[in-house]
């Protein structure tokens, strides 16, 4: 599996020639390392309804003639805007041609922001367990630390965990290190930080805390990738 960090909480994941993108917040993200026009994927995965996660999901899905995989309520709202969808529920899993997706709980909101500052109901926020080939990636979505992360780690063999560290809206550095220990993943990559002033974090501090707990963590800058085959990252 090759995991490319495109900024904020967006990752492009590739395995055996199949590609999916998670939370494609690109056009409105000044730190994004890719443009929506350059994305070629078999599916779009979205954790929840906030604009910094739905982002360009509709445009990418339409351009690639592929589905958006997300929670039931959010999927219906995106379908109204012209996207092909595959709705799911928390705890449910589905085997696609390109891989397996299981939605997990996440403690966060999921309101769909409207232009008049209103909201549509977006169902519940989720995390994603994505298995492609023999590799499993856990994208926690936007979430607080919660006890069932222990169970997620116990029930699943997780190769790579993607955890928010930005604080304010999600767990911060301290709680993310606890989550990394509970999940027992081979590798943890931080996300959802430094995009906005409210979520500015020092990744050196995160790396130091991970090292103290003897946990393997890799910080990727937008545009860098990590390969589970070679266990190295590249620009």
TrEMBL record:
It catalyses: 3',5'-cyclic UMP + H2O = UMP + H(+); 3',5'-cyclic CMP + H2O = CMP + H(+). The keyword Hydrolase applies. It holds the Pfam family Lactamase_B_3. Residues 7-192 form the Metallo-beta-lactamase domain. Gene3D superfamilies: Ribonuclease Z/Hydroxyacylglutathione hydrolase-like. Keywords: Hydrolase. SUPFAM superfamilies: Metallo-hydrolase/oxidoreductase. InterPro entries: Metallo-B-lactamas, RibonucZ/Hydroxyglut_hydro, UPF0173, UPF0173_UPF0282_UlaG_hydrolase. Counteracts the endogenous Pycsar antiviral defense system. Phosphodiesterase that enables metal-dependent hydrolysis of host cyclic nucleotide Pycsar defense signals such as cCMP and cUMP. This is UPF0173 metal-dependent hydrolase J2Z22_002957. The lineage of its organism: Bacteria, Bacillati, Bacillota, Bacilli, Bacillales.
